Amino acid sequence: MNTRIPILKLNNVLIVSIQWELDDQTAIQFQEDLLNKMHETAALGVVIDLTPIDFIDSFIAKVLGDVINMTGLMGAKVVITGIQPAVAITLIELGIHLNNVMTALDLENGLDKLNKELEA
Q1: Which residues have a Cβ under 8 Å from the Cβ of 54 and sit 6 or more positions away?
Q2: Following DSSP, what letter does each residue of 44-111 receive, concatenated?
Q3: Which helix (H) or strand (E) holds 7?
Q4: How many CA atoms lie within 13 A of 98 on its CB side?
Q5: In angstroms, rounded to a whole number, what is the distance separating the alpha carbons of residues 18 and 35?
Q6: Is pLDDT above 60 for 50?
Q7: Which residue from 84, 81, 83, 88 is spatially nearest to 104, judged by alpha carbons?
Q8: Edge-to-edge strands, sheet with 7-10
Q9: What's the average model confidence in pLDDT over 36-43?
């Protein structure tokens, strides 16, 4: 299955809602697509919503951590929303630190938080 994750643009922010468990190929494609979209749009922020995801494996966790770090390197702020308990545990157990990443319970709160941060 080679399904692409939709990346929506709202003003100067990209919104990604991951709706299904990712396979390795989809995760790598997502990483590439997001970075290209950021470059094309000069987005200042990215919200990645993980609400439907209740499990990630070590490869997907690493790709997610890499995406977050790469997004920061490209000058955008990142908010991760909807992290489920098992996903949080996996990220920490694998040593994936989201130090400079804002988090929020849901997409709406994540957008609010990101917009406030971008206005500051």
Answers
A1: 84, 86, 87
A2: SEEEEE-TT-----HHHHHHHHHHHHHHHHTT-EEEEE---HHHHHHHHHTT---TT-EEESSHHHHH
A3: strand 7-10
A4: 27
A5: 16
A6: yes
A7: 81
A8: 7-10, 13-17, 45-49, 77-81, 102-104
A9: 96
Q: Which amino acid is at 70?
A: M
CB 105, CB 82: distance < 8 Å: yes
The pLDDT of residue 1: 52
Residue 49 clears pLDDT 80, i.e. is over it: yes
Confidence of residue 36 (pLDDT cuts 50, 70, 90): very high
- What distance in Å separates the CA atoms of residue 116 and residue 21, rounded to the nearest whole number? 30
What the block records as the tokens of 67 is: 């995406």
User: 87 and 55 in contact (C-beta within 8 Å)?
Assistant: yes
Amino acid (one-letter) located at 102: M
Torsion of CA 103, 8, 66, 118, to 10 degrees: -50
